[in-house]
Amino acid sequence: MKNLSSFVQVQESLREITANHPLWNHEFLNRCRTRQLALQEVQLLAIQMYKFSKEFSRILASILSCCQDESVQLAILENLFDEMGRGDLTQSHPELFRHFTRALGIDDNILAIQAPNLETEALINTYLRIPHQYGFLAALGAVCYASEGIVSALYIQLYQGIIGAAPLPKESLVFFEVHIHLDDSHAAKLAALIEARVTTVEELENIKLAVLEAMNARVQFFNGIERQIIEYQVNANPFNLLKV
Ligand SMILES: [Fe+2]
Is residue 148 part of a domain? Predict the structure, then answer.
């Protein structure tokens, strides 16, 4: 096996994958940045984001199930504990997200019965599959670089689209504010753990594949939202997509 000379190269190569990825030129994100979203489009986005983000605990658990390294297990558990409101379910991240959907006029029961798009399901399944296919280190890489590492940049753009469509109370947007701050620190901790453990080019290649697959699946996720928006526009009753 070949050895890696420097982890700086590893970090740079992983950050390059996310920084130069086509995700950032996605038409949906362009429309968010320029505040062109309508309220109904934000509702569709919110439902699909909820379907993905509420699975994050299972995604972390899936990585944990493939990991025998105690220090990494602890880091994943801390991340999971944050996800579950540090023991207070009124502060769990799915509950913080429901503050947002309620402010958009989406009832919890309606939210619960909405099906994820095929593309949203594919994004969830990509993250659930990666630890089993590429190992826990690569899965941590996907969470670190393609999820928590991009949340700040991604959510700031989505946030522009959301506040451009609806004047929502500040407390309904707490999910975004929490993640813009919390995920940067999660990503930094995971990067340090990965840095200490990647020793071979083969391991780095697996992390790169995992990061790229997660980024590609994220593009598909936004393609799914765009597809649903088009379906929504051609539908005679615009509320059909939000009702039972
Ligand atoms: Fe979260």
Answer: yes
